[in-house]
Amino acid sequence: MNQIVNDNSTRSMTLIKYLTFFMFMMFAMTTDSVGVIIPEIMKQYNLSMTSAGMFHYGPMIAIALSGIFLGFLADKLGRKKAIIIGLTLFAANSYLFLLGSTFAFFLTLLTISGVAIGIFKTGALALIGDITKSPTEHTTTMNAVEGFFGIGAIIGPFIVAYLLKHGTDWKWLYIIAASLCIVLISIALLVKYPTSSKQNTESIDIKSTFSLVKNPFALGFSLAAFMYVAVECSIYVWMPTLIASYSGSAVFVATYALSIFFILRAGGRFLGAWILSKYDWSIVLAIFSFLIFVCFLGSVIGGVNYAVFLLPSSGLFMSLIYPTINSKGISCFPKNQHGSVAGIILFFTAAGAALGPLAIGAVSDFFNHNASAGFVLATLFAGCLFLGFLYNWKYKLTEINF
After folding, report:
1. Owning domain of residue 160
2. DSSP 8-state assignment for residue 134
3. How many domains does the chain have?
4. CATH number at residue 367
5. Using one digit for the tens of pLDDT, what is the confidence trace for 88-111?
6. DSSP state of 388
């Protein structure tokens, strides 16, 4: 009998793990396709880079607010309820793309989808803490989760490119994502989730979430997430615009630069667990962030001819940084606070994803719509990220918690 119970529990844990993987893949299909969609809506609605970028800024701001204000739901209601609520809202909202055709209508739907993502993503991040037994396993699982996110980031732009090539509207991407979401909801309803710790549930609310922001570990990892995502988003939001004028011999690389970036980022995340098992995570992040900075600096100095190669290559070095930030930040706290902490990190993540590209687009517009000027700012972000990780490694700021 005990063997049967253990087998059922093992199957449930495996199913939950893959459900989490595919949730991240599904929403990455939409969020990371924006760099391909933006040039289309700029032409369709005659928009500037800053205005068209609202397709990215809008949902990212919504994710940020959802993470900070609703992240506690994963601790208060439980992981399963939070995930199902978020997925249901995301699916219903995505199907509404069929009903409209205006920029304002689509932007509203994207903003609502951001709220939904914030809810189910914090639930999923907290769930990872429930199904892992150590900080090392947590980091390994987080890298695998982000690897599937990377796969979604490859699939999404490919679907959009395919749709556009065959004369189909890009909004059908959201219908495809919604249909996949229905499958995930059905699985989530059927599977048995592990019981999460709920000590002091009466104090789990927005107020308790804001009190955690004052914690130096929560704040430090959140700021690292902000800076990293500002750098990463500069690639998939504005790199296609930056290299659009490229006319050199490496046309193939230029054409598929974004796909190359996503492939390297996804592949690197699957390898990230092995790298982190061999070397101290703090020095790995310091070295990899330095290599990212070199890629951006070389692109700025060398111009578009160098950027075509260097910017996509930075995906390999970016691969393990964000999942490690997330994992180490969440692991600093007890499991009954994982939803709230995940919400805080998600807030700074989405804020970086919104404000970073917004600032880059604004700088580009200020210099006569010159994307190269915006990437000077992106290079400064990369430099700040490196200095932060270098400081953390040198002074062992987080060693006490690991």
Report:
1. 2-401
2. S
3. 1
4. 1.20.1250.20
5. 999 999 999 999 899 999 999 999
6. H
